[in-house]
Write a structure and sequence with these properties.
The chain is an all-alpha fold. It contains 5 helices and no strands. It has 2 domains: 73 residues, no CATH class; 47 residues. The longest helix has 43 residues.
């Protein structure tokens, strides 16, 4: 059991530190660029995560007063449900108009072809009698 923990604890710590490093904004990584921290965490999988947790990330509120969660909250794209998005509804209405126009053209073409077939049948019947 302890042999298994010897491998699982550093692995879990490495995964945690790696994800924490990736989710940290660039300006909150201390001493080194964030990409350097990623390589340190992955290459030195026992010492790297401990170094990241101890010295790599600003753990207090930054000077600007914003926390990482506020940064992520402010930089998320705002999604609107399709039925609440007026641009999407407008595009559906335009697409519907185009489809109706195509359907009317198709029906007119179908009526014209049916009429031509009727004329041919009447013309052939009168010639044959």
């Amino acid at each position: 059991m302890f042999r298994l923990l010897m491998y699982l604890v550093p692995l879990a710590l490495t995964i945690f530190a790696f994800i924490d490093c990736l989710n940290t904004p660039e300006d909150e990584a201390r001493h080194l660029p964030k990409i350097a921290w990623v390589f340190i965490i992955l290459l030195f999988w026992i010492v790297g995560p401990i170094a990241w947790l101890a010295a790599g990330k600003v753990r207090t509120v930054p000077a600007g007063g914003r926390t990482p969660s506020e940064w992520h909250r402010n930089h998320r794209p705002q999604y609107v449900a399709p039925d609440d998005n007026p641009e999407f509804l407008k595009s559906l209405a335009e697409e519907n108009k185009r489809d109706e126009a195509l359907l009317k053209d198709w029906e007119a073409d179908l009526r014209r072809r049916e009429e031509e077939l009727r004329r041919k049948e009447r013309g052939e019947d009168t010639q044959g009698s």
